[in-house]
Amino acid sequence: MKNAIIFFFSILLFAACKKDFEGIEIKGRITEVGSGKPVAGAKVFIIGIGPGDGFLSPGNGNESIVDTVFSNENGDYRFRREDSPFGGYRIIIKRDKYQDKYPSRGIDWHSVNTFDIQLQPYAWVKIHLKNVNNISNFSWVKLNGSWINWESDKYVLNAKNLDQIIFETLLGNKSQKFTLKNYTTNINIDTSVIFLPAHDTIPINFYF
């Protein structure tokens, strides 16, 4: 009889331990695109979505910042609370020298969610454009590249006596293409493909 009682209470204890988690836990690891290095100090905003909006529609309806957590030296982050007044959650990740991340995936409550993130690092270029011939056949030139804030005619410049320094922000840990062309004939004067390490400023010279 004693063994039967012990067995009965063991069943109850096991059932209690198996009870569904009623709160919300969001955790994961943040790494850098291209290198796979952990990103420490990334700020993770935990956004609660109103109960009527549903966790599959982040960004719609009422939202509120529930908390913010930071990734540690290994890139790991974790948020947990035992209750959940929201119908769902989403996250936003920000870090200096990286592109902000807005994952579209909604996160359900009463569950543990593992959400690994890769952040795209920035790099910078310092471009020197100089017409060493002073007066040449190139009356106007156009510089093309993969700028973050791109405008189609951003750098259409008078080539006569041109001597200008340009700074631009680009995506790091990847190769980028830069082209200087004759704006009138649309013929390339010079093209460079350069690998841009994350967070570095790379000099590029176009002398023509």
* Count of β-strands: 15
Shape, per Cα inertia axes: elongated
Measured on Cα atoms, how large is the radius of gyration?
27 Å
* Helical residue percent band: under 10%
Q: How many H/I helical runs? A: 1
- Percent strand: over 45%
Secondary-structure content class: mainly beta
- End-to-end distance, in Å? 98 Å
CATH uppermost class of the largest domain:
Mainly Beta
What's the SSE blueprint?
Elements: H1 2-17, E1 24-32, E2 43-49, E3 63-70, E4 76-81, E5 88-94, E6 107-108, E7 111-114, E8 117-119, E9 122-130, E10 140-144, E11 156-158, E12 163-171, E13 174-182, E14 188-196, E15 201-207
Parallel strand pairs: 1-7, 1-8, 9-15
Antiparallel strand pairs: 1-4, 2-3, 2-5, 5-6, 9-12, 10-11, 10-13, 13-14
Description:
The protein is mostly beta strands and 208 residues long. It has two domains: 20-119, Sandwich (Immunoglobulin-like), CATH 2.60.40.10; 122-207, Sandwich (Immunoglobulin-like). Helices cover 8% and strands 47% of the residues. The protein contains one helix and 15 strands. It has one helix at 2-17, and strands spanning 24-32, 43-49, 63-70, 76-81, 88-94, 107-108, 111-114, 117-119, 122-130, 140-144, 156-158, 163-171, 174-182, 188-196, 201-207. The longest helix is centred in the first third of the chain and has 16 residues, at 2-17.
